[in-house]
Amino acid sequence: MRIIAVTDIHGKANKVRELLEHLKGQEFDLILIAGDITHFGGRESAYNILKEFLDFGKSFYAVMGNCDGRDVLELLEELNIGLHGKRVEFNGVGITGIGGSNITPFSTIWEFSEEEIWEILTRNYKDGDIILSHVPPKDTNVDKTFVGTHAGSKSLRKFIEEKQPPLVICGHIHEGTGIDKIGETMIVNPGPLSRGHYAVIDFDEKEKKVKDIVLERFP
């Protein structure tokens, strides 16, 4: 199964159109969006982005980011693509979602305590699931800010250490673009689509294992 992973669109519909034009004719199965669809926008702003994916015709799921309006989650649910606090199966692969972020110094729209993050993950996860999370796990290559601090979630990291999901797709920290590993878990922050970043992931649905991750960028 081939997954296109994107995150941190921040309302840039032009970048979504460029990505989808770039992907035309390419073979893949699923698009996963790890939040910050808008830049502090509501459902109208989010729909302007999501309709591009809807019109493209490929299956996709999304979680909201900490910069998405309170009504964006409602829109994701209405469109039947929302994964926050939920689990779906696609091609026999479970995907568990968690949107928003851990607590930040900036009092953004969707923030959860570490206890809430832990509860959401443990309530929905089944062995072998992919995790789609806006926030990255703490103390990794993918949660390091430009000033050098690690801004990820302690609970997500602990969950990964204990459960060893095969793959975690995240975002949130734009400068944390990259790939890391905790035990057997592959973690990818594709980088902000608002700047042309995305990732291509090949996942073995029978073995529940990542075969390859490639970080991509278009102009």
UniProtKB/TrEMBL annotation:
All residue ranges annotated as the Calcineurin-like phosphoesterase domain in the record: 1-175
Pfam family, one: Metallophos
Molecular function in Gene Ontology: hydrolase activity
InterPro entries in UniProt: Calcineurin-like_PHP, Metallo-depent_PP-like, PAE1087_MPP
Coiled-coil portions: none
Gene3D superfamilies: 3.60.21.10
PANTHER family per record: CALCINEURIN-LIKE PHOSPHOESTERASE DOMAIN-CONTAINING PROTEIN (PTHR37523:SF1), METALLOPHOSPHOESTERASE (PTHR37523)
Designated name of the protein: Metallophosphoesterase
Biological source species: Thermococcus aggregans
